[in-house]
Amino acid sequence: MRIAVTGGAGYIGSHVALELMQAEHDVVIVDNLSNSSEVSVQRVADLAGHAPAFYQTDIRDVQEIRRIFSYHSIEAVLHFAGLKAVGESVSEPLAYYDNNVNGSLQLLQVMRELGIRQFIFSSSATVYGQQEQPPFAEHAALGPTNPYGHSKRMVEQLLEDLCVSDPSWRVAALRYFNPAGAHPSGLIGEVPRGVPNNLMPYVLGVLTGRYEQLRVFGQDYPTPDGTGVRDYIHVMDLASGHVAALDYLQQHAGFNVFNLGTGCGYSVLQVVETFEQVSGHGIPYTVLPRRPGDVAESFAVADKAWKSMSWRAERTLQSMCQDAWNFAQRNPEAY
Asked: Which domain holds residue 134?
């Protein structure tokens, strides 16, 4: 298929673009490079053995998106172009609603105009609230606790309504838990701009000497060691999940939701311990107050993806940490 990957130069988008290319799809990457680098596109090309088409374009540039999609006769869109930091969303909500909600709306309007009806949305487990205890299945009560989560849920609702209005749409909203790790080659991985908001890239920053110590936000949660518990999923498993979802949509119309997670939660301190094991280095840390919008625990029930798409996460936390450490060592100055 001819597939557009928005945000395809970013962390998750680049791994998914590579997986799609290795599955013999024609990939067109659209990315404004606000939190990514064109170097990752070149490395995807190196790993795939041929280059994807690439356009440095914002998804809100409707005229350019229309031109790109028309020129390449796009048949499906995988949408990763979104802002994604919980803390930043609390302080900059307008930017999150503009990029994540308004950007998705404009993208879908172009798709409808051009008759493109297959869409995979990069959603998030942050759409689940605190009304229920984890693990979270797809039917769990929704109730985001921060603007980032609200923006993801708003796009999901938009997609659900769109599919009701026009049954020809084939949509999958994939609710990620916590992507981690890197491609085993060490060529592509997570390269956040500025100070990382996520745990693993910050740990790597400590290990490589960029930061003196890890900041642990909260050690008074009702968890075994007091630190937040998350379901970490290897980015390569996440990438294969998107190919499985695309295959699924060939036979299933309407709005479909799938969790992409392992079903197993690890605390901040368990992640730190695993990184210490794979790197052979100690990781100093300091405990700070909880961040606004964070929840104590979040992990998945991932049965639906296995039953519907024959997909499940296969890689371990140790594999995630090892591959992330390998990427950090091979790319000390990032991209």
From this structure: 2-181+232-261
